[in-house]
Amino acid sequence: MRFRSFTARMLAILLALSIAAPPLLEARFQPTSGRDAFSREQEIQAGQEAAAEVTKQLPILPESDPLSRYVSRLGQTLASHAPGDKWPYSFHVVNQKEINAFALPGGPVYVNVGTIQATDNEAQLAGVLAHEISHVVQRHATRAATKQMQAQIPLAILGAVLGSRGGMMGQLAQMGISFGVGSYFLKNSREAEREADLLGTDIMYDTGYDPHQLAAFFEKLQSQGTSRAPTFLSDHPDPGNRSQSVAAEVRTLPAKRFQGDSQEFQAAKRQAGGMKALTAQEIAQQQKTGNATSSMGQLSRADVMPSGNMRNFQHQAYQIKYPDNWQVFGDTSSSVTIAPRAGVADNAVAYGVIIDGYQAESNRTSLDDATHQLIQQLQQGNPGLRAVGNDEDIRINGVPGKSIDLIGPSPIKAQNGQAVRERDWLVTLPMRNGDLLYVVFIAPDQDFQTMRTQAFEPMLRSLHLQQQ
Predict the structure, then answer these.
(1) Distance separating alpha carbons of residues 282 and 201, to the nearest angstrom
(2) Number of H helices, E strands in the chain
(3) Separation CA 296–CA 298 (nearest Å)
(4) Contact 360/373 with Cβ under 8 angstroms?
(5) CA-based Rg of the chain, rounded to a whole angstrom?
(6) Sign of the alpha-carbon dihedral angle for 41, 62, 177, 131
(7) pLDDT in tens, 425-463
(8) Counting beta carbons within 10 angstroms of the beta carbon of residue 32, is it exposed (0 to 12), middle (13 to 18) or buried (19 or more)?
(9) Cβ–Cβ contacts within 10 Å for residue 33, how many?
(10) Order of strands across the sheet that contains 90-94
(11) How many CB atoms within 10 Å of residue 415?
(12) How far apart are the first and last CA of the chain?
C-alpha cells in the first residue's frame, strides 16, 4: 500500500514538472530522410567552394557593412533554433535589386537587398532566412544532386569519387553538377518548398516570430506580380495551399506572444531603402567588362575589388576606415590617396579615394559656395569633368556636408582605345579652421555602384573629423 502511494505521488510530481517545463526549442517538423552521397565534410566543402565563386560573380556587401551585420545576427539567432546537425552558417547580403534569396550546401545563405526592401516587417525577413536555413538542414541541394549522380555512377562508389584528390567543385563539374549562381540544384522542388515552409515555421516560432508572416510574404509577391520577383518565385515554387499548411503547423504549437520589429530592423530598412541596388542585367554586364586595358596595362576587377575587412587610418585632421587590401599613399599630414595598388599608376587614379583639404577664397564663404569653387578648381586640372544633377545636403556623423556626382574620362581605355567613362563622387565637409575637407571616390562608371556599396559608403560612414 505504501509502495502504491509513493508511486502515485511520484507520478503526480513528474506530471506537474512536465506541465511547468518550457517546451524544448527544437522544431517539431524533423528533417526528412533521403539518400545523400555527400558526407557532412564534403557538403561543407562543396558549399565553401561554391561560395568563393558566388563572391566573384555577385556584388556581396562587406561583412563590416551595418546591413550585413544585422542580417548575420538575425540569421545566426534563427539558426540556433534549427534542429539536427549544427552547420557552419554564414549570412550575406547581395546588392541586387531583384527579390531573391538562396542557400548553398553546408550553411552559406544569401539574401538580396531587394528582398529586404520588399519586406513589411522583421518577421517576414526572418521567415525568408528561416526558409533558407531549412533548405540547409534538409540538405535539399545535395540530395537533389545525389539523384542525378546516381544515374551516372553507382551510389556505392560515389563516396570514393567525391573523396578523390582535387577540389570538390572540379569533381562535381565532371558530372555536370554545380551549386553556383542559378544552379539547377538551388531551384527547389515543390516538395522541398513544403518541407522548408514547415521547418521554417517551427524555427520562426521558437525564435519568437509570427510564422504566418512567412506565408504572407510569399503571398504578397504572388499577388503583386512585381517584375523583381519572378526569380524568387521560380526558385521557390508554391507547393500549394502554402498559407493553410503554415497555419496548420502553427495550430500544433502552444499559443504565444510574438515579438515585433526591432530598432535594428528599422535601421536596416532605412539603409536598404536608400541603396541603389544593381539589376541582374547590370551585374551580368559588369562580368562581361571584368577585364579592361588601360595605361596601367591589363587590369582585372579582381585586382581592385575591396575585401570585406577594414583597417583604420589616423590623419591629423580626420580618421577613416578602408579595405585592408587597399593601400594608403601619403602620410598623416599630407593629402592622401587610398586605393588598390593596381588602381593607381602614372599619377592617375582609376579606382580609389582621394582625401585632401581646400581653402576657400574667404573664411566667410558658405559651404555651398566653397564646394562649387572646389569643383571649378578640379575641372581646371581635369578637362572633361562635369557635374551630374544637383548637389545634395548630407550629414556625416553629425557634420553637415555636400554631396555631388561628377563624370569624366577614366585612365582606363576600352578595346577601341577610347577612355571609358569615370564616375566621381565628391563629398565636402567644413573643418573648424574654415577650410574644407573633401573626399573624391573614383571608379569607372560600370563598376561604380559596386565600389560605392562595398567600399565607398562604408568608408564615408567611418569618417570622423578630428577635434581642432
Answers:
(1) 35
(2) 17, 17
(3) 7
(4) yes
(5) 27
(6) positive
(7) 999 999 888 889 999 999 998 889 889 999 999 999 999
(8) middle
(9) 8
(10) 90-94, 108-112, 101-103
(11) 9
(12) 88
**8 A C-beta contact, residue 341 and residue 352:** no
Measured in residues, the chain has a length of 468
Please give the grid coordinates belonging to residue 417. Answer: 582605345
- Using 70 as the pLDDT threshold, list the residues of the chain that sit under it: 1-34, 148-187, 225-231, 233-235, 286-300, 345-347, 363, 415, 467-468
Q: Tell me, what's the pLDDT at 112?
A: 94
pLDDT of res. 236: 72
Contact 132, 107 (CB under 8 A): no
The torsion angle over the Cα atoms of residues 286, 290, 293 and 296, rounded to 10 degrees, is 110
Amino acid at 146: T
Structural domains in the chain, CATH included, are: 40-273 (no CATH), 292-465 (3.40.1000.10)
Amino acid occupying residue 408? G
Helices marked H in 109-162: 113-118, 122-138, 140-150, 155-162
Please calculate the CA angle 61-62-64 and round it to the nearest 5 degrees. 130
What pLDDT, on the 0 to 100 scale, is given for residue 178? 58
Q: Which residue has the cell 573626399?
A: 439
- State how far Cα 216 lies from the chain centre: 23
Alpha helices in 21-121 (DSSP H): 40-57, 66-79, 113-118
- Cell output for 285: 554586364
Q: Which three cell numbers stand for residue 233?
A: 518565385
Report how far residue 117's alpha carbon sits from residue 132's, in angstroms, rounded to the nearest whole number: 18
- Nearest alpha carbon to residue 94 among 126, 56, 139: 56
Report how far Cα 439 is from the mean position of its chain's Cα atoms: 26
Residue 151 is given by DSSP the state T
Q: Residue type for 354, please?
A: I
Strand partners, 310: 323
Give backbone dihedrals phi and psi of 127, rounded to 5 degrees, phi first.
-65, -40
8 A C-beta contact, residue 213 and residue 262: no
pLDDT at residue 239, as a whole number: 74
> CA–CA separation, 186 vs 142, rounded Å?
9
What's the pTM? 0.59
